[in-house]
């Protein structure tokens, strides 16, 4: 499959969505892939049993609870695959086998008992447990369960109820017709033994367990002569698995281990009659190995444990439980690095135990001296399981240990379930709620509340004379929604957001947009700024058609259309052709253009020309216009000292592009000295002015750091980057600056830690942060950490060719070298085909 294309727009919680899909594919669409874990193949076999009308033939013995399917969808974020019955899966997503079973389910009332039993068994195998109760809506009585087919129906109902509810009265009632007066069928044998197993494992009173196990043995003995060697040996092994649970409960570990060894030896000698029975044999071996590992651990037999793990991984390399057991074995043996590798492998195979695996991986990372990597793993554990107290408490403790109470509070809030707002139980929403629905952002970063600020000014109808400078990337909201998994917020127009996701502020905004055409230019500007800050760039351009400067008449119209020029340019950055702000050049010459607007356009245009055209002549021309406008503004008594100093500081920082292009270090230093001097001296009054002062100073010292790095003054640059970080420790870009400084000092491992902080504080730079951290860890001789970082980068951006190449280079570090090489080869082939199609 085209893994990157399949994942486009979908970001798994911890692993790439395509990887979760392939490992567990039969649960999603009824098909399988080469990576499919053994237990998931139950649905493949059950569908074939249905087609062949052989419901009494051997099926897989292990079933999964209903929560498993929910976790699969939550962690993969493949929400289109959410279903409680087979008909709920869109037909275009379903495999042929799934579509056949869905058709059978639609006509379940018309099916005979054989097909109903086969359908019920498939529903259990596909983990569609609620649908089983539609096929078998009521318990049969003892007499109704006397033959194998009807007993199979009742058994399916009992198994489904346990998977949905646990050991409840309804579950017990469903088992009763099968176990109180069992008939001599294999279904009754397995149901009686299964009931004894459930009592041994989950019941408070296990006194009845020996009776059930002995009864199952007796029934089986009466049937043994009618069975072939294969069927008899497999059932024998399954009975042994049930009996081992009771032996374990009785602390008879040696007896349990001996019983398992004997069953394993018998199973290993079997030759399956056909391909379907080969699947049954494989699952039986896998279950025996699992219990052998557990008994070896109980007995402290490391050699037996390792042998069983090796056998298991050889037949089921995608099994998350085997990877977890391997990690635990390494951890007990005092091998934290090997344990870290195994826990990371387990976590990416999920979904059961993802958060648990990541927390243990974080412990191992701490033991190997990788504190920042441990923090990243703890955050990932929390995002995988935000409602688990263990992940919450560990992440809060990590935040507090770093002196980060603001982020600790975000964690506490995100861990608090709000039944009326389930989306609030999400890290990204709590951090950046303003961008989702004008909710309350709790990120302590400078830019988390920009949409809220814009909304509040629009609500008051009094735009500020001095605004913030940060232009968030056009992809910010898109990336935020993708990484959060809250795809229900991905709308192209505010009115498209479902009512249950709206805040009162959002409803107000929808009213403004509906009335937009009736507003004057000044009011349109205020509303459009809110839309822009929320990421609705295309909508802004639709609401405000381009109008040449010559057709504009008022200062408000001129301001609106210069701003539209900026929006159009920002929206085009990174594309094949950039939209030049040509209208702004004409607006400056317009008779109605006020001095302040001329100043704003000049400063912006210096930046545009320096970045996009590299024209020194054009940049110089705009600087001259800006200088004249600034002189007029500084002499204008209507502006406060705060406003004047902010304008002048921003001016010198922006126009310093000119001496930078000229390589005139003296004049560049003079411009930046003046910008910095003013930035530090700004007399801020009140919360909003303090916000602007901090933002301007942070931008100023960041620019100065680039200046010093460019001219080899690394020590001075390092100090300024540290100051920028102190002003806003939550800005991903600053952590990139820190990392780049560390690389200049040839310290790749420390740089990797800064890039990891960038990734933690995304979403703008999440994929970049992980990929860059991977490069640094690879340089530092840490291939295991590099491999995890590359895979995380591909989780966010499946098209990231440099990350794919990095993963292929270090993939063998965690047993995924072959998969990494295939991914890279397929991605390169796909990219070459795309390029060829464009040039054809």
**What would the average pLDDT be, to the nearest integer?**
94
Name the poorly predicted regions: none
Strand tally: 0
Backbone CA Rg: 32 Å
Helix content, binned percent: 55-70%
Question: Termini, distance in Å?
Answer: 25 Å
Q: How much of the polypeptide forms β-strand, as a percent range? A: under 5%
Protein name: Tetratricopeptide (TPR) repeat protein
Organism: Kitasatospora gansuensis
Describe this structure in words.
InterPro entries: TPR-like_helical_dom_sf. Helix 31 (595-613) runs antiparallel to helix 32. The two termini are 25 Å apart. The chain is elongated, with a radius of gyration of 32 Å. Among the domains are: 11-135, no CATH class; 760-840, Serine Threonine Protein Phosphatase 5, Tetratricopeptide repeat (Alpha Horseshoe). The chain is an all-alpha fold. Helix content is 68%, strand content 0%.
What is the secondary structure topology, with strand pairs?
Blueprint lengths: L2 H5 L9 H7 L1 H5 L12 H10 L14 H11 L19 H11 L6 H13 L3 H7 L12 H18 L3 H11 L6 H17 L6 H15 L5 H21 L3 H16 L6 H25 L2 H14 L4 H13 L3 H14 L4 H14 L3 H14 L4 H13 L3 H10 L12 H11 L12 H11 L15 H9 L19 H11 L6 H13 L3 H7 L11 H18 L9 H7 L6 H19 L2 H19 L6 H15 L1 H6 L2 H17 L4 H25 L3 H14 L4 H13 L3 H13 L5 H14 L3 H14 L4 H10 L6 H23 L1
